[in-house]
Write a structure and sequence with these properties.
By secondary structure, the chain is α/β, with parallel strands linked by helices. It folds into 2 domains: 201 residues, NAD(P)-binding Rossmann-like Domain (Rossmann fold, 3-Layer(aba) Sandwich), CATH 3.40.50.720; 190 residues, Rossmann fold (3-Layer(aba) Sandwich). It has 16 helices and 14 strands. Helix 9 packs across helix 11. The longest helix has 32 residues. The termini are far apart. The model has no long low-confidence stretch (mean pLDDT 96). The protein binds ligand SAJ. Ligand SAJ binds next to helix 9.
Length: 433
């Protein structure tokens, strides 16, 4: 397939899908973005991005204006005219921590209706191992065409950090696996057009699926290690953040940062895809499961720290106001998916606390929906107990004088306890006895 002959259809214009579509369009490919949400389609066709991501609004405007990118929300002739189809739809987990592949299955069925000989289907959605070969390819072959013989299939996981997506998508290495060598090479040639990073071809589809899960499971288990060490340090009167910082001077140590819990739609979800398939194969995934349990426990440990610190200072939680700083799942993003702030706020309210919350990037709707009320920063800082949950850059400017009632639980390692304690602030935190 030569470049001018390639017409790309990308299914799923989300946090990763829209940047991917825009980058292919920026590099001269004709791209149709397909999404089931008509609002997203309208916003993109108006030349704007429905997602807050630095640089994305301008990029979408440029490529839509030039006619390289357009969006549609149904099976259309443009899908039939496409010869490269990319699936980048969400893969959440259900209440039993099992993968919900309904969006991937639906996207595959959509493609099957428009699949032509010599097409290339690329899956980017994060999926459990063996999904491509055991679920997606059988659906695609309902077209009457045979994978490898008639059409190509490749898997390449997206791996861009939210809030830095465009840079990471054009610089991070890409891992690619194919149903056959030709599919992998075709996909590699395509992604080399949008990234300066290394393009690493692995043996097959399942290896590429597993690489993505390994990356995020590596981070989740390392964060769990940092959190467990922090809990132990608290009981031993050791400042875990200081100890971790010192330990990381070792050339082969990279302990992550303890915090209020692990949010986002990746690290808190992807490890379960490995657990699900491991247990199907009667192979336990004890460490991975335990790490998830440790990270999911952290919001409740923060609630304990708040309650205990108030009690130690003659106040009770059910007569106190708690001012939460930050509700998104991590600093400088507006995304609240799986945020640890949600279980924390619900737990505090169940114990009778009055919870007020500030977040420069999250609107009132989410905060109200979980039972809190959105306030200005000044008001949150006047609460009986101020709790920093999200490491937004703007919170690095907080000074001891701003903590009006002198109790401050800082769950992220972004402020210096000594600065606050020497001005009379009762400064506690995860791993900060
Ligand atoms: N967190 C900690 N301590 C740390 C690091 C993070 O508590 O030391 C928390 C964060 O506050 C956040 C959560 O963990 O709540 C996840 O944060 P993250 O930045 O590690 O993860 P994501 O979901 O924003 O992005 C990750 C990235 N994966 C890797 O870095 C291996 C990104 O490259 C992936 O593309 C993304 O998941 C994804 O889409 O899978």
């Amino acid at each position: 397939m030569t470049a001018e002959k390639i017409k790309i259809a990308l299914l799923g214009l989300g946090h990763m899908g829209l940047p991917t579509a825009a980058l292919f369009a920026k590099n001269g490919f004709e791209v149709v973005g397909i999404d089931i949400n008509p609002d997203i389609v309208d916003i993109v066709n108006a030349g704007r991005s429905p997602i807050m991501e630095p640089g994305l609004d301008e990029l979408v405007q440029k490529v839509v204006e030039k006619g390289y990118l357009r969006a549609e929300n149904n099976i259309s002739k443009s899908l039939k005219n496409s010869n490269v189809m990319i699936i980048l739809v969400p893969t959440p987990i259900d209440d039993n921590h099992c993968s919900d592949l309904s969006a991937v299955i639906s996207a595959s069925e959509t493609i099957t209706k428009a699949l032509n000989k010599d097409d290339l289907v690329i899956i980017e959605s994060t999926v459990p191992p063996h999904t491509c070969e055991k679920i997606i390819i059988p659906i695609l072959e309902k077209s009457g065409l045979e994978a490898s013989h008639d059409f190509g299939v490749a898997y390449t996981p997206e791996r861009a950090l939210p809030h830095n997506t465009l840079y990471e998508m054009t610089h991070n290495a890409r891992v690619i696996g194919g149903v056959d060598e030709e599919s992998a090479n075709k996909a590699a040639a395509l992604y080399k057009k949008i990234t300066h990073g290394e393009v690493v071809i692995v043996d097959n589809l399942v290896t590429a699926e597993m690489v993505k899960l390994m990356e995020n499971t590596y981070r989740d288990t390392n964060i769990a290690l940092a959190n467990e060490l922090a809990l132990i340090c608290e009981s031993l009167g050791i400042d875990a953040v200081q100890a971790i910082k010192a330990a990381n001077f070792h050339p082969r140590v990279n302990l992550h940062a303890p915090g209020p819990g692990v949010g986002g739609h990746c690290l808190s979800i992807d490890p379960y895809f490995i657990v699900e398939m491991a247990e199907k194969g009667n192979r336990p995934a004890k460490l991975i499961k335990t790490a998830r349990e440790i990270n999911d426990f952290m919001p409740y440990h923060v609630a304990f720290l708040i309650e205990k610190t108030l009690q130690d200072n003659g106040k009770s939680l059910n007569n106190s106001s708690v001012g939460i700083l930050g509700v998104s799942y991590k600093g400088n993003v507006a995304d609240t998916r799986e945020t640890p702030a949600e279980p924390l706020i619900k737990n505090l309210i169940s114990k009778g606390a009055r919870v007020i919350a500030h977040d420069p990037l999250v609107d009132e709707g989410f905060i109200k929906q979980i039972g809190g009320s959105k306030v200005e920063l000044e008001e949150a800082l006047e609460a009986d107990c101020v709790v920093l949950i999200t490491d937004h850059d703007s919170y690095r400017q907080i000074t001891p004088e701003m903590i009006k009632k002198s109790i401050f639980i800082c769950t992220r390692p972004i402020l210096d306890p000594a600065e606050f304690r020497k001005r009379g602030v009762i400064f506690k935190g995860v791993g900060r006895p």
